[in-house]
Amino acid sequence: MNLFALAASVCGEGEDLVGASYFSAYANWLPEETRRHKEYVKALKHFGVECFMGHFKEKRRACRSCGAQWTGHEEKESDVAMATQLVADAFQDRFDRALILTADSDIAPAIRIVKIAFPTKSLDVIAPPGRFTHARSLAPKLVITPGRLAKVLLPETAANSAGSSAFLRPPGYLPPSV
């Protein structure tokens, strides 16, 4: 999904999209998934999306019933980076209306701060596909539908300014037939 095009598709008449940001982390212990994720980030950057990458922290886990132990992974900094960027952008007057695509309620305190400090700024939460119930506490204004998604898919490839391939969509990311 081209996040810049998605944000542009939600903008209203007379609104100018000034930027789009993506917050995530690479699951480095999963090499194939990390390779595909890096290709996606490269594609997002090609289309003007600013990417903020956190990291994962290993965490020892144990089953309370049987005592089995394993190493789990916990994403760190992505949601805090999103919240911090939202507040910073508000204070720097970088937007009149912010579109926040998330179902993670960890962003709620940042939204409250911006609403209190800047009551004239509009903050619209957009629920990712299939995540409306998770985002309910954020009172999403819009849910991304399959039809909207189909209109903002990334192309299979794009050329950079030198004419060579800027990115290549991994075969596993091919969309279903519409």
Can you summarize this structure?
The protein is of the alpha/beta class.
Can you give a write-up of this model?
The chain is globular and about 60 Å long. It has one domain: 3-Layer(aba) Sandwich (Rossmann fold), CATH 3.40.50. The chain has helices spanning 3-10, 31-46, 78-91, 108-117, 132-135, 146-151; strands at residues 20-24, 49-53, 55-62, 69-76, 97-101, 122-127, 142-143, 157-159, 165-168. A three-stranded parallel beta sheet has the order 5-6-7. It is α/β, with parallel strands linked by helices and 178 residues long. The model has no long low-confidence stretch (mean pLDDT 86). The chain has six helices and nine strands; from the N terminus they run αβαβββαβαβαβαββ. The chain is 33% helix and 26% strand. Helix 3 (78-91) runs parallel beside helix 4 (108-117).
Question: How would you summarize the topology of this molecule?
Answer:
Layout: H1 3-10, E1 20-24, H2 31-46, E2 49-53, E3 55-62, E4 69-76, H3 78-91, E5 97-101, H4 108-117, E6 122-127, H5 132-135, E7 142-143, H6 146-151, E8 157-159, E9 165-168
Helix pairs in contact: 3-4
Global morphology: globular
Tell me the strand order in the biggest sheet: 5-6-7
Tally of extended strands? Answer: 9
- Strand proportion, as a percent range, falls in 25-35%
Q: How many helices in DSSP terms? A: 6
End-to-end Cα distance: 15 Å
